[in-house]
Amino acid sequence: MSVRIDDVDLEALVNDMNSSFESLYTSCSVQTESTPLLHNGQLPRHAAYHTHAQPTSPHQRLHRSQPMHILAVRKLQEEEQQYRTSSLPAIPNPFPELCSPASSPTLSSGSLPQCQPSGKYIIKVFSEDGMGKVVEIPADMTARDLCQFLVYKNHCVDDNSWALVEHHPALGLERCLEDHELVVQVQASMTSESKFLFRKNYAKYEFFKNPLNFFPEQMVAFCQETSGTIPPSQLLQNFLNSSSCPEIQGYLYVKEMGRKSWKKLYVFLRRSGLYFSTKGTSKEPRHLQLLADLEDSNVFTVITGRKLHNAPTDFEFCIKPNKVRNEVKELRMLCAEDEQSRTCWMTAFRLFKYGILLYQNYKIPQQRKTLLSHFSAPVRSVSENSLVAMDFSGRIGRVIDNPVEAQSAAMEEGHAWRKRGKRMNILGSPSPLHPSSLSGVIHRTQLWFHGRISREESHKMIHQQGRVDGMFLLRDSQSNPKAFVLTLCHHQKIKHFQILPCEEDGQMFLSLDDGATKFTDLIQLVEFYVLNRGVLPCKLKHPCTTVAL
User: Fold this and answer.
1) Which of 222, 349, 460, 532 has a CB 3.0–4.6 Å from the CB of 299, allowing a cystine?
2) Domain tally for the chain?
3) Which helix (H) or strand (E) holds 349?
C-alpha cells in the first residue's frame, strides 16, 4: 500500500500496529532523508513508499496499519479533504470549457471563487458553397474581428461588408451577428446542427445612410407631438437616444403559440418590448399585452418559406429567446405585409436592443482606416468625379476639357476596338465570343459572375446579402444559351435585364439596350454601368459575391 504525506494524521488512530514492520520503516526513513518534495506537497513517484524525513520517534513515524474499518477511514479522509480545501488556494481548472455552466471552473469545492473563461476555442465557419474552415480563436474575439481574420486569410476585398451569420437549419432561421458580439458566447447558445456562415451583408448599416427608406413615416410614432416630416438625422437620433420614446406600429400576422393558425394584430415595438393591442389600435396600457421581450431575445429571418409554418405572406421573421434551442413552440413567429415593413420591424428591433452600440460599430471601420492603414488591404474606390477624359495620341497625354471633344474621343476609341477586333478576325484569330477566345470566358473569373444559376437562386443570393440599391450579379441565361442576364436590386425590388449578342461588320458584341451601346465582353459592360446608369434604374454598385474558405 502506498503511503502519502497527507496520511500522517491517521497515526494517532492506529494503536495496534504490527511491531514487525518497525525496523523496515525505520530503514526506509533513513534512506529518504534527502528525497525532494514536489511543489504541491506530494512525494515523487519513486518515493511513494517512503515517509517524511522529519519524524524521529516511533510514535511520530508513519507505520503500516492492520486492517481498519473502511467507513472510519473514509470519514477521516473526508474531514482531511475539507481541511485542505479550506486552507489551500484554489487551483484553476485547465479545461473550463468541459464544465457545465453550473459547475465550478476550479478543481476544488464549489464554495471557491470562479474564474473567468479564458483560453482558446475552436470555431467552424462555413462558406456559401458548404465548405468549412476550422479556426482557433480567443474567448474575447468579436464577430468583427473574426470577419477581419477571414478576410485577410482568404485574400478578400476588405470593404467592411462581410458578416458572420448564425444559421439554424433545424429551425429554418438565421441572423447576422452584430460586430460587437462575442463569438464564443453565441456559439454556447447554439445546437450541434447550427453553424456560422461567412458572407456579404451590404444592408447591415444601410439604415444609417438612408433612414427614410427603412422607416416609413406611417410606421413611426413618437411620444411628443411632431409637425411635418422629421429630418433623417433627427429620426436616427430619436432611435439612438435612450431618453426618447419612439415606437414602430402597424399590423402584423402573429402565429399562435403551439398552433398553426395566425392572427392579424395591431402591434407596437418599444424599448421595453413588443406589444399587441387587445382593442383595435388602442395604445392604452390596459389594452396592451406583451408579445416578446427584447433583452434576452434576438430577431431572425425565416428562410424556410411560407409553406412550413402556413404563413399568410412570404415576409416572415421570428423573435427567438436566447434560451431556446430546438423548441419551435417557444418561437414568436411574425409575418409582415411586404418586404419594406419586415425590414422596418427588424431594423427597429436591433436599434432598440443595442442603441448607440450599432452606431459605434458603424463608425469603427472609418476610424480604423486611418489608424491601421499599414495593415489594411488597399480597397480600390473610384468616383466618377475623379475620372477625366485623356488624349494619348501624342507623345504626352493631355486632359480633354471640352465635353464635345471628349465624346468624340470616346466614340473614336470605341471604333478602334471594333477595327482591332475585325483586323484580328481577318488574320485568322477567333471571334471574341468564340468559346476558345479569352474574351469569351474571362468574365467567368469575376466575383460577380455566377454561371448557370436559376432565377430563384439569384433572388436568394441578393436577399441574403442585403437587398440594397445597386446590388447586382450576372449569370447565364436559361432561355437563350448565347445570352446573359443582369440581376439588379433597386428599391428593394429585384429586376432582370437580358444581355444579348449583336453583330456589326462581322464583329460580335454584347448589348443591354438592343444595340444602342455595344461592348466586346461582360467586363467592359459592367465597368460602363458602374459609372453610367444608362437604361438601368440605378448604377451597378455592390457585386453579389461568394468566397470559398
Assistant:
1) 349
2) 3
3) helix 339-354
Out of 174, 200, 226, a domain closes at 200
Q: How many CB atoms lie within 10 A of CB 50?
A: 21
Residue 57 counted as domain residue: no
Q: What is the mean pLDDT of the chain?
A: 76
Number of other residues whose CB lies within 10 A of the CB of residue 507? 20
- CA nearest neighbour of 10 among 88, 86, 80: 80
pLDDT of residue 36: 41
Mean pLDDT of all residues in 246-250: 93
In angstroms, rounded to a whole number, what is the distance separating the alpha carbons of residues 356 and 464? 25
- The pLDDT value recorded for residue 21 is 41
522 neighbors 439 (Cβ within 8 angstroms): no
- Backbone torsions φ then ψ of 333, nearest 5 degrees: -85, 130
Burial class (CB in 10 A: 0-12, 13-18, 19+), 209: exposed
Query: Of 169, 200, 231, which marks where a domain is finished?
Result: 200
pLDDT tens figures, 62-105? 444 445 455 555 565 666 655 554 444 444 554 444 454 444 44
C-alpha to C-alpha distances, 154 to 126, 176, 311, 338, nearest whole angstrom: 13, 20, 39, 37
In this predicted structure, the answer to whether residue 120 has a pLDDT above a threshold of 50 is yes
The answer to whether the CB of 529 falls within 8 A of the CB of 536 is: yes
> Measured between alpha carbons, how far is 206 from 97 in angstroms, rounded to an integer?
37
Does residue 192 share a domain with residue 341?
A: no
**CATH label of the domain that carries residue 529:** 3.30.505.10
Average pLDDT over every residue of 194-213: 91
Report, in angstroms and rounded to the nearest whole number, the Rg of the chain calculated over CA atoms. 36
H-state helical runs in 56-202:
70-87, 143-153, 183-188
Domain identity same for 210 and 156: no
Q: Which residues of 241-267 are buried (b: 16+ CB within 10 A; e: fewer)?
A: eeeeebbbbbebbbbeeeeeebeebbb
Domain check: are 169 and 125 in the same one?
Answer: yes
Q: Which long-range contacts (CB under 8 A, 24 or more apart) does 448-454 make?
A: 448/472, 448/473, 448/474, 448/526, 448/543, 448/544, 448/545, 449/473, 449/474, 449/475, 449/522, 450/474, 450/475, 450/544, 450/546, 451/475, 451/476, 452/476, 452/478, 454/478
